[in-house]
Amino acid sequence: MRISLIGGFIEIGEGTGGNHEVVQIRAYEKGKGVGTALLKKYKELYKDNPPHYCLYAFVLGGRTEARNFYKKNGFRELDLGNSIYKGDTTILMWIPFEEL
Questions:
Q1: Stretch among 38-42, 62-66, 80-84 having the lowest mean pLDDT
Q2: Are 33 and 25 in contact, with CB atoms under 8 Å apart?
Q3: Which residues, 6+ apart, have CB-to-CB distance to 49 below 8 Å?
Q4: Which among 55, 63, 70, 83 is least surrounded, fewest beta carbons within 10 Å?
Q5: Which helix (H) or strand (E) covers residue 71, if one does?
């Protein structure tokens, strides 16, 4: 599912166990609150039919800006170790739906 607002979009897919995955999130201008607004819009649209447990995203460990965005919005981090990209790690960012 793609949710668009002026200034950006978020794409959500159904992932493992009926949870929802952020496939991509894009704010055309960073620091304007668009990403946070997109997460809020997602929760509003799914409040009556939420995922099984959580919303999650995979982020490369070196992508500090992306990790900080998710942490600012209440996501937890789980380091999954080496990624398929040489010299980086894969981080699972996740949050229970009701905490979003």
A1: 80-84
A2: no
A3: none
A4: 63
A5: helix 64-72
Give the 3-state secondary structure of residue 70.
helix
The reply to whether the predicted model has a pTM over 0.90 is yes
Strands 54-60, 20-27: pairing is parallel
Amino acid at the residue 62: G
Three-state SS sequence of 8-60? EEEEEEECHHHCEEEEEEEECCCCCCHHHHHHHHHHHHHCCCCCCCEEEEEEE
> CA quadruple 4, 34, 93, 51: dihedral positive or negative?
negative
Within 10 angstroms of residue 59's Cβ, the number of other Cβ atoms is 21
